[in-house]
Amino acid sequence: MKTFLKILKYLGIVVVLVVVVFVSMVFLRHDRTFDAPYPTVQISTDSATLARGKYLVYGPAHCSFCHVPLSEFERVERGEEVALSGGFNFKLPFGTVYAPNITPDPETGIGKLRDEEIARSLRYGIRHDGRAIIDFMPFYDFK
Fold first, then answer.
1. Residue 142 CB partners (closer than 8 Å, separation 6+)
2. Considering its fold, how many domains does the chain have in total?
3. Rg for the chain (alpha carbons), in Å?
């Protein structure tokens, strides 16, 4: 019985150490920033370019699949144009992740960002504040 308790004690110590190391790593790395170049972009407002962008957003790039509220998802599946106001949530074991608002609104969306900041997030997965975009965003497909 003493041997069993001794093994249980050491096993408990190992489990506590593993948890402490894991929590420490998450705490130390959660706010890490990254550096990536700001791509040189030439923004065009001609109708063909805007139509191509809209096609990509609501089609093959699937932006509208995550960046709309869950209540609007049926409209997206029907092919309707819906504001990309965010709110779609991914329930994960460590918490819930919400897709952000990417409308041009300067207060709640990405309207305050420079074009280069938006391009960097799409190409490299780096937000305007230098933090990484969660890996659901398929930025590696947009390079």
1. 61, 122, 123
2. 2
3. 22
